[in-house]
Amino acid sequence: MKQITVISGKGGTGKTVVTGSLAALAENKVMADCDVDAADLHLLLHPEIKEKHEFKGSKKAIIDEEKCTLCERCIETCRFDAIINDQSAILIDPLSCEGCGACSLVCPEGAIDLKEEVTGEWFVSGTKYGTMVHAELEIAQENSGKLVSVVREKAKDIALQEGLDYVIIDGPPGIGCPVIASLSGIDIALVVTEPTLSGIHDLKRIIGVCQHFGINEIYICINKFDLSISNSHQIERYCKSIGIQAPIKIPYDEKVIKSVVQGIPYVEYSSNGVGDKIRELWQKIAYSG
Ligand code: SF4
Ligand code: SF4
Questions:
Q1: What is the mean pLDDT of each run of 10 residues along the chain (289 residues)?
Q2: What is the CA radius of gyration of the chain?
Q3: Which atom of ligand 1 is nearest to 103's Cα?
Q4: Which of 39, 58, 77, 134 has a CA between 20 and 30 Å from the CA of residue 6?
Q5: How far is the CA of 97 from the centre of ligand 1 (A)?
Q6: Using a 6 Å cutoff on CB, does residue 106 contact ligand 2?
Q7: CATH code of the domain containing 102
Q8: 3 state DSSP class of 133
Q9: From the CB of 83, is ligand 2 less than 6 Å away?
Q10: pLDDT at 142
Q11: Is 92 in the pocket of ligand 2 (CB under 6 A)?
């Protein structure tokens, strides 16, 4: 079983268009949408939820008023100014509390506990293309890296139990903690980029992260390569210079947007040049190693 993460340096590069098409092309796989802050793979795959689970991603301090003697040691200790004395009681602002637990350690009365909070949900769903594991983080909640790990772990369990060949992971944009959680321990990285200077910059950063994690199989796909032939050449030269095989180049086509609006993976929407290129990309990955 191989784990493949589709990743991009930032949002809007066409990553989900590529992942949605791979979902339609690959057989014997489970999909994992790890873009938990702004999930959109469901718009193409139309999952029907079969299992729903709470995600407890953070802890908050709570005070037992009956034990509290208003000594204020917790207030002095909290680095996040999350605790106040409103004269009659010590109060904790849940929005400011980072759940570090320092207040609980210093409280002489044992009046402070840390309580796990539900900050999101994760799902196991059925789609026309097979099982999909996905999640939603509540607005303004953090710890999406931990939720990514939960989604990946569940998808991997399903693949192992059902004897599937692939876990295809739609990774989050950027290079933050959730991206690292999407890349650690995988077999193949597919980086979707665009032929702009910022795209090239982001591509180099994300390849650096992949190499840091020892991912040897890296594929590059330049989306809308014909919008800047010179920048696409620059990406090709860069790939050659670091020993990565030549990128697959997907041309610009306004039908791509129409396929997204209609909620259809592109390879099922049209079989023109874009679809051919995504098929070529999948063939390369599927028959690698
Ligand atoms: S340290 Fe404990 S006892 Fe003192 S004010 Fe805070 S909660 Fe109350
Ligand atoms: S858990 Fe940490 S952040 Fe929250 S109130 Fe206690 S000391 Fe402050």
A1: 89 86 94 85 93 91 94 95 91 91 96 92 95 87 81 96 95 81 91 92 90 91 94 95 92 90 90 88 84
A2: 23
A3: 1
A4: 58
A5: 15
A6: no
A7: 3.30.70.20
A8: strand
A9: yes
A10: 65
A11: yes
